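Case study 2.
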Amino acid sequence: LQVKEESPMAWIREEDLDLANIIKVTSVNPAAMRTVERMNGAITFGSSALMGVQGEVIATTVSVMNKCRF
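Prediction:
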C-alpha cells in the first residue's frame, strides 16, 4: 500500500494488486472485486471444449471488432 504524496490527490491510496486493470477498477468494493476475479478465472481458465490458444484468438478477435483498447 502506498500513498502518492506528490499527487494533487494524495489522499487516494493505491495498492499494488496483481490483477488486470479491468478488475482493479472494482477495488473500491473488495467483495465485488473478488467475485469478478473468480468469475474471470472461471471463464478464462475453466473447463472448455476450446484449447487455451483458441480461446485467446476468439477473445482477441472480439476485442478488435469492438475496438477495445486493452
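The first strand starts at residue 2 and ends at 3.
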